[in-house]
């Protein structure tokens, strides 16, 4: 038999899945790790936690599946985008990774705009300078921790650090590298102009591959630890969103998906470089060679629900343990009984600032309209609705850019929730569908590995063959109008609070 492994280094956990050639899940494993928030708006994780989670889960899936070491032909790695991993000469981690939702780099973004006009940034990198993206974080370390910058010999993204651990190779691929703000996105290569302007030495960065190209093979000590062979190939892989696109079959024009992971993303495939001149949504290289994608991002999507659950729902957590069920299943059960609009309660999900549409690192979360009739279940539903309003903001911008789809695929942890998918269908006013395999990014990179190993002809052909729809949720016409009115009020609230957010940040 021939098998493929997909690894997804998410923010909440690493999920590793071993698939057969038909895309059936043979074994899966996951390991959680902490998110550190040393200051308001900062977010860090330890690359060593990702490393340990990857090695443990790969070992577990190989063992559980009973696959012989020569049967695992290829591995694809997917991961949270934009995180900065810095290694010294010996390949040791210099400091914790500053991850995608960290908002400390407002001043560095200003610095980038002084160095080069916004229009030129958009021309080259397809995006304006952004606080959560890697370039601003590199400047932050250089400005605030010069001793760490001095020691740095390799700059890697989270999943590319895992590639280094597995293969010893320093490399990246176009989809994830697009989120560093150092890539010439239309031409799919490092931008010498940007590197020169920022005074960043190109030798710090790895070689850039296409997502299905083979980048290396497994190191002997890792092969021994995990039960893999030193012949197992590791392909470029993809940023988690480009990977989820492949795993949900979003590889042709006119197709799109929404993922609710820690972040939330509305993503559309594009055979052209399509740019929002206002910079509200991102344009990146897709994992399908010679194509791109556009995506709007909600910073705190699943993060909002997890935050509320962790801080205020100990009762749900204990009940879930008693009943031996997933705590989110209990939450979904209870919020299904609350009416759309949560009886006039609106949540703004700006716990980590917001990207689309505001690009504002200073805004923060709000419950608006709290009344004495509201219960915890109302607040939970409002949290999920607030995230859905934000995702709807993303979808509206894609529509404004001429990207309109009849059906939206759904994935990520939150995409498993039928109530959350119903909210999205009602707000987007289109059907929201799932695929048979729920592990979007892991399947996506396993497919890329299969292409790289010659098991599949192309990404598109593999998607046609392996991916099939499971469930479709249509819009409920009786609440579409109601949600439109709530969404309008939601949008007005940010405008009303914008100046107060600045004052709060300055306190
Ligand atoms: N059954 C569920 N219903 C609603 N939300 C869920 C459910 N399961 C997970 N989630 C949400 O999804 C998030 C995790 O999604 P996941 O895609 O695994 O994230 P990541 O890739 O960032 O690690 C959780 O924080 C939670 O908010
Ligand atoms: O920053 C982005 C995309 O621009 C996020 O989508 C990260 O890639 C994190 O992903 P999850 O851990 O939420 O899947």
Explain the overall architecture.
The protein is an alpha/beta fold and 507 residues long. The chain has a domain at 3-249 and 437-469: ATPase, nucleotide binding domain (Nucleotidyltransferase, domain 5, 2-Layer Sandwich). It is 41% helix and 21% strand. It has 18 helices and 24 strands. The strands form seven sheets. Strands 1, 2, 3, 5, 13, 14 and 15 form a seven-stranded mixed beta sheet that branches. It has a seven-stranded mixed beta sheet with strand order 18-19-17-16-22-23-24, sandwiched between helices. A hairpin with a 4-residue loop joins strand 2 (13-20) and strand 3 (25-32). Bound molecules: adenosine-5'-diphosphate (ADP) and 5-O-phosphono-D-xylulose. Catalyzes the phosphorylation of D-xylulose to D-xylulose 5-phosphate.
What is the secondary structure topology, with strand pairs?
Blueprint: E1 3-9, E2 13-20, E3 25-32, E4 44-45, H1 47-65, E5 72-79, E6 85-87, E7 97-98, H2 106-115, H3 118-125, H4 134-144, H5 146-151, E8 154-156, H6 158-167, E9 171-173, H7 174-177, E10 183-184, E11 189-190, H8 192-198, E12 207-209, E13 214-217, H9 220-226, E14 233-235, E15 238-239, H10 240-247, E16 256-260, E17 264-270, E18 282-285, E19 292-298, H11 302-312, H12 314-323, H13 327-335, E20 346-348, E21 366-368, H14 376-400, E22 407-411, H15 418-428, E23 431-435, H16 440-452, H17 459-466, E24 469-473, H18 477-506
Parallel strand pairs: 1-5, 5-14, 5-15, 9-12, 16-22, 22-23
Antiparallel strand pairs: 1-2, 2-3, 4-7, 6-8, 10-11, 13-14, 16-17, 17-19, 18-19, 20-21, 23-24
Helix pairs in contact: 1-6, 2-4, 10-16, 11-12, 11-14, 14-15, 14-18
The protein binds adenosine-5'-diphosphate and 5-O-phosphono-D-xylulose.
